[in-house]
Amino acid sequence: MSSSSSQRARRREDARRRDDAIAAQGYDRTFDGNWQGAAGQFLLRWYTHSSHHQRLAVISRGELVLAAPPRRVATGREKHMEIVARVPAHEAALVDPFNGEFETDLLLLRFRDGSWLRVETETYRSGLHMHLLRQPLAEG
Question: 82-88 and 63-68 as β-strands: parallel, antiparallel, unpaired?
Fold first, then answer.
């Protein structure tokens, strides 16, 4: 077996393990499924601010800020972004659920009650992932 074919096989196996772990934890869903939990209630409020499916997430000191266009737009959505939510750090945290074990585009907005909302980044190991990996591990 050549080096390149063994590398491809290893990448396929890593991707399979990652996908299995995502499915096993239920992270292949939009949120934890509990509409009464903080994540479900947040998601309902989120949709009232903007029906656009994409959000811009910015971590600032003490909060996560989400911006979105006020309605569905095909081009120039960046020009139409408005802040639709501010999530204080004491209410929720953005986390890499696998703490860097896998290269994914997956992050979770995990609320104090344990509920979570899936956040996908545009790239694997995004700048948000790298920021989170530099932070000390959260308790719990």
Answer: antiparallel
Task: For residue 9, give both structure tokens.
Answer: 């096989």
Which of 60, 26, 30, 62 lies closest to 43, judged by CA? Answer: 30
Distance CA 27, CA 25 (A): 5
Token output for 76: 């120039």
pLDDT digits (tens, 9 = 90+) for 48-71: 776 666 777 777 778 888 888 766
Q: Specify the DSSP element, H or E, that contains 7.
A: helix 3-25
Count of other CB atoms within 10 angstroms of residue 69 = 20
CB of 31 within 8 A of CB of 115?
Answer: yes
